[in-house]
Design goal:
The complex is a heterodimer.
Chain A (H helix, E strand, L loop, with lengths): L1 H31 L6 H17 L4 H23 L8 H23 L12 E4 L2 E4 L1 H22 L1 H11 L1 H6 L4 H27 L5 H16 L3 H22 L2 H18 L4 H4 L6
Antiparallel strand pairs in A: 1-2
Helix pairs in contact in A: 1-5, 1-8, 1-9, 1-10, 2-3, 2-4, 2-8, 2-9, 3-8, 5-6, 6-8, 9-10, 9-11, 10-11
Chain B lengths: L4 H17 L1 H8 L4 E6 L7 H20 L8 E6 L5 H14 L4 E4 L3 H13 L3 E4 L7 E3 L2 E3 L4 H16 L2 E7 L2 H16 L3 E8 L7 H10 L3 E5 L6 H9 L8 E3 L7 H4 L2 H4 L3 E4 L8 H14 L8 H20 L4 H8 L4 E4 L2 E6 L4 E12 L2 E11 L2 H4 L11 E3 L5
Parallel strand pairs in B: 1-2, 1-3, 3-4, 4-6, 7-8, 7-9, 9-10, 10-11
Antiparallel strand pairs in B: 5-16, 11-14, 12-13, 13-14, 14-15
Helix pairs in contact in B: 3-13, 4-5, 6-7, 13-14
The chains are: A mainly alpha, B alpha/beta.
Amino acid sequence: MDYLIAVGLEVVSGIASLVLISIGLAVVFGMMKVINLAHGEFLMMGGYATITAANAGVNIWVSILLIAPLVVGLIGLIVERFVIRRLYGRVIDTMLATWGLSLLFIGLATTVFGNTTAGISSPLGPVNIGHVGVSAYKFFIVAVALAVIVALYSLFKLSRFGLVARATMQNAAMSSALGVEPPRVYAATFAIGSALAGLAGGVLAPITGVVPSLGAAFVAKAFITVIGGGSTVLVGTLSASGIFATVNQLASFATTPVIGEVALLGSAIILLRLLPHGITGRFFKGRI
Amino acid sequence: MSMNRRDFLKTAVISSAAIALSPGVVGNALAATDILVGSIHDLSGGLDAYGKPMQDAMVLAAEEINAAGGLLGRPLKIVTKDPQSSMQQYAQLAQELALRDKVAVLHGGITSASREVIRPIMRKTNTLYFYNTQYEGGVCDRNTFCTGQTPAQNLATAVPDIMGRWGKKIYIVAADYNYGQIVSQWVKKYALENGGNILSIDYFPLDVTEFGPTVQKIQAANPDFVFSALVGGAHLSFYRQWAAAGLKGKIPMASSTFSHGQEHVVLNASESDGILVSGNYFPSIDNPANKAFTGAWAKRFGADYPYITELAAATYQGMHLWAKGVSKAGTLDRTQVLEALESGISFDGPTGRVSIDPATHHCTMDIRLGEVKDKKWSVCETWPQRAPLDTSSVCDLIKSPNENQQFVIKI
């Protein structure tokens, strides 16, 4: 029984991690139709921001929850201003440019931090469920993922900025005619997506450690989740994360982590064969 | 800028003359009396924590030999290559060292995969090769010397000893490549021979960082101890996640790889205290050669050096064994140095006496059990002069000197 609860917790925290690593990409892709191939590197930079700040004596929670998203959000703003802005509507060109950016960021991080695994210890101790020990940090990951979803929902559904942003994404020319400045909205949306990637990197840093090539390990999963979820940002990411992470974790329990990854990819292939436009291409249409 | 053919030719001539006269090329020509020693270790990439101390050990050994007058009256010069943890680079750089630099000997390679890239290149180019890493055993090649310990050597005594301390139910986690696969079979063999029981063997590719399900599976299996043959920076996460789930104090852990990648330096004391490691070298070994070695190391690389690894000690000893061979042969000629090394050369190094076994080109050496406490190792057990039993069960280079393969030893 205790073991089943522990398995359940692993599954839930697996879903939460997947939501965290893909939500930033989902915002940028879903709202702006920009395919950001440097998403993994944004995660990596969030991880380094957290570790650097924590090693410099900043409180660990501040490093994870504030510094990582702020730093990476700022980098995102700069990237949008100098690269992405010039390439709106040109999907292939954006992919090429962001792929170049990802190589640049990996190179820079290797130069600055060296190609070694940096890490910090998990800041929370263990929790006992009956006589099975689990890391309390897993609860923290779940909490952050929930908070991110609630915050994004409120932002896009309830705030004025969200209304303007959604209007701009639907019809930029019309909202421009009504007095909205689309470039500003794009910049803000891209910065939010980047900040979310940074947050994910910060949250995962104590678990996985950080290397300059960290992004590669996550970017594929993030893309599969976003594509599997379809065009609807929140519901799509949530439902796709739910399916893929559950398959991944249960297969890992039953066999090994390698088969777990294989099962994740296998389920993604089947899902996209059945629902070529992702889950939200068929279900939950028109939601956020 | 427009340029006609004459201008172009002029520029081309001048610049090629400049390249030819540049310091690098001239330097090589003038330093013809140096004996070039190749060093190929991962100094960046996922395995850099293993490679850097090995490279430093090469430098220290060469400087010692040079300070004592060099070899055959000529100074050693180390040619360093960094393959960046990439097998493609290993192939290219090993060729470069053998064919362009024409090194007298090559030391290096960390993973077994990299060794199997280097070894055929060295054999083909008739360049002597030293592999100074503990590995799964079985290499049988007259051109190659292995100065690290192998599983039978290491585990035959250690596994029963650890079972005596903690119990007979063992859960093995290992890196998913030949070393991890083979070493866990040896653990299994010695455990079963001593009445033990293997609950499960789980393998992980080198880039896995998420061990959540594994940690839970181990808890559910409830072993008396966990044996880890995990390798590399990504696998560090296992020890972190293990401690974060509160299992550190509950289920003890032993390993044959922990500390080689400086894991205990990167991890907190609370995440690593009490882990037992069986191996050949710990810096706290109490013998005069080791005191001199650690003293010289601190003097050369600073007293705050993170950790002198077993692989570094083996590299240092590999260099000295080779140097003894060259001195005895009185020449750099490969065949004569080979014969000298096969004549029963031994070196009293930091790990105690290491002797080259002529039949296998592996070494007989001491094996120890160490325990980490507050990031420092204490030696709790020593088994002197263990022979490379696994390799010698399949390899006899005296009888068949043309053997050239890595045997898969039937366990």
